[in-house]
Amino acid sequence: AEWTPDAGWHDPRVVAYGPLSVDPATAVLHYAQEIFEGMKAYAHPDGSIRTFRPYSNAARMQRSAERLALPRLPEELFVGAIDSLVRTDAEWVPSGGETSLYVRPFMFASEVFLGVRPAKHVTFSVIASPAGAYFAGGVKPVSIWLSSEYARAGSGGTGAAKCGGNYAASLLPQSQAAEHGCDQVVFLDDVEHAFVEELGGMNLYFVYDDGSIVTPALSGSILEGITRESVMTLAADLGHEIIERRFGIDEWREGVRDGRITEVFACGTAAVLTPVGALKWADGDDVAEARSSDGEAGKVTMAIREALVDIQYGRADDRHDWMHTVA
Ligand code: PMP
Q1: Residue whose CA is closest, atom 5 of ligand 1?
Q2: Which CATH number does the domain housing residue 114 bear?
Q3: Is the ipTM of this complex over 0.95?
Q4: Does 66 share its domain with 108?
Q5: Cβ contacts of residue 210 below 8 Å, gap of 6+?
């Protein structure tokens, strides 16, 4: 669909996948006025196709739009567009194992204009692609590189929005993580450089030996994950106390070393829940590490993961009313 100040949102349509034709002076290419969402559609055993909490994605897209000075997108247009595309692509929704149809809604400044002001022509689009199981050989802990040089987002910046620019900023630290043999990068707050924010694309949780679970409180620069919120609900269902608070990087290092933190996991739409093994950081010219797992996924992590995946794949009662029937 297209948006202009006079006509509002108009011309919604489903078209065959293909290249967009963009003028070289299209605003998004120069000023990155762009936001997106990521979600999945699942084939259920009863033959239905369902998406997970699309109204939560709609609400987050709304908050991102506001921060990026993009127009309001009515939630019926957002959810309706996804429903239409998934129905059209129904035969592409895989079934079996942890497979799904990944859905990517995005909105960008399509006005042809070189100048720094909100665009007066905006395009909203949705694409989709079948996604295989994230963990093909079983769930395995990931290793994390602590980025001490770079922040993902600053206070007052766009960290709480899902905009492309945040990911552009995380590419260099992410490649530094890879150079140190790590799978993911963890970012700290940009003021005190002491508090854990999140990974490049996942939120973090710390499981303590008394059963309580701590997650970094939303700081204004953390992306409010829909999986993060769902985990909070399911962990509480399983009897865990959930604590949202500022969480120091030293608490992570010391907690896993003295055994008070028994499991660390990260969560997001792509991997659902993934155990975190080693945390590594630069210590002068050396690399130091703190390990929270011996290569195995923790019990609490796997119990919460299973509770969530069972709802998403229609194997358990949808007691929180999270699944949205598309077809
Ligand atoms: N943080 C960041 C920076 C992300 O890109 C994502 C993935 N969208 C998440 C957290 C997790 O969010 P969600 O659970 O909604 O996928």
Answers
A1: 201
A2: 3.30.470.10
A3: yes
A4: yes
A5: none
pTM of this structure:
0.96
With a 6 Å cutoff on the Cβ, whether 105 touches ligand 1 is no
Phi-psi group of 252: left, alpha or beta (phi > 0 → left; psi -120 to 50 → alpha; rest → beta): alpha
- Count of domains for the chain: 2
Q: What is the pLDDT of residues 57-77, one digit of tens each?
A: 999 999 999 999 999 999 999
Asked whether 312 lines ligand 1 (CB < 6 A), one says no
Q: Is the dihedral of CA 310, 314, 319, 320 positive or negative?
A: positive
What does the DSSP 8-state code read for residue 2?
E
Max CA pair span of the chain: 62
13, 94, 99, 198, 250 from 217: Cα distances, Å:
40, 35, 31, 10, 16
Instruction: Name the residue range of residue 277's domain.
Output: 142-312
Give me ligand 1 centre to Cα 164, in Å: 13
Q: Are 243 and 279 in contact (CB under 8 A)?
A: no
DSSP 4-60: ETTTEEE------S-PPP--TTBHHHHH--EEE--EEEEE-TTS-EEEE-HHHHHHH
Residue whose CA is at the smallest distance from ligand 1 atom 3: 201
